[in-house]
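**Fold tokens**
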Amino acid sequence: MRALHILASIAGLAIDLTSAQASFRAGQSRDIRFNWGVPEEAATSGSGNVYLQLDAPDTYSWVALGIGENMMTAKIFLVYQDGEGNVTLSTRQGQNHIMPTYVDRPKVELISGSRAADGRMVAKVRCGDCQDLDLTGQNSWVAAWSAGDAVNDKSTGALIKHHDDKRIFTVDLSKASIGSDTDSFSEADQANLASDSDYGIVSTDEFSPIRLAHGIIMTTVFVGIYPLGALLMPVFNKWFLHSASQLLAYILMWVGVALGVTYSRQTSLFGKQTHTRLGLIVVILLSFQPVLGYLHHRYFSKHQSIGLVGHIHIWYGRALMILGVVNGGLGLQLAGQAGGSWVISYSVIASTCFIAYLISIIMSLNKQKRRRAENSRHSGQRWPSPDSLLQTAEETYHPSYYQDPRNIPMKDLTRNRDNTAVDDGK
């Protein structure tokens, strides 16, 4: 009985060590599996081998796992089929918005059990130079993938297409402890490795309510309210409607900025790529727009014309709206939505609003043209031409003008007894 008890204890310990492997599921149907294992010796010393497993259906062209806060700076483990029943592991370095390039890392290698078979490609990786990881704490990771035809290339520098989607998340490697530094992903572990549950994942950007709210609000502001509010002036000629709509957009914009800054700081993205940099510049420049609008309104109310400040207000706002729409596209790209329904919806809405706004600009220019023509016509009636003035003078001082008693000057008229005016003899 005692022997059985000891065996049961050992079995329980083995189960605990197996279940301690951190895991994360991603992909179109959570069908991509990532696992981490940190040997106890490495965790204690703070350095040593770290084990990774990337497991995905062969309907994906490639899958990747990277150490870092974003794809642009991550140290990436890229896996694709080699065309001969196995997988190729390509260690690459993220480089801003261009495709990651291969970087030789001799201490990173595939271990036994890696394969492309039974409808899946599995890469078991031993990383001997992951020294920048906190082996007992939290670390940022990024995962990406692309569905499609197999790469079927044994070279580590194979060309790949852009990712379909990606995830940024945090793994607590203290939950990835394993007892041995050998055969860390054995066949006996496959039932646990194939589990659909996540373990050791602290946070993930998937379905982030902050990111989603930021995207919806900023799209509503720059693609909807700002351009629609701007075309209220030429269509309805109501200053109050224009100012009220733009004020609403201005307030919502700063709410969206606050959400964006909060999320980018949580994921360490703030100020590190074009979307956050350009977005910050646009909203700061828009801070001057309400002041320019007020000065333009005062000038127009007094002079009934668009002055220099008015033209600056109009074209300055149009330029910033365009930059805001472009930056929205960069935001979708940063969120991993380089294609698909989100980009299509954004493009359709932005194009529709742009066409409507372009029509309003044409209407405004035509209205200004008609106003100038009308002012010119009224101006011509108020100030007679020199020729008309000369003709009037000639008619007034022509001798025939005085043949009519009604035209005789008052000094040449006298009064009869019946108080009627007569000529005094001239």
About this structure: The chain has eleven helices and 16 strands. Confidence is low (pLDDT under 50) at residues 1-19, 393-397, 410-417, 421-426. Residues 83 and 152 are 4 Å apart (CA to CA).
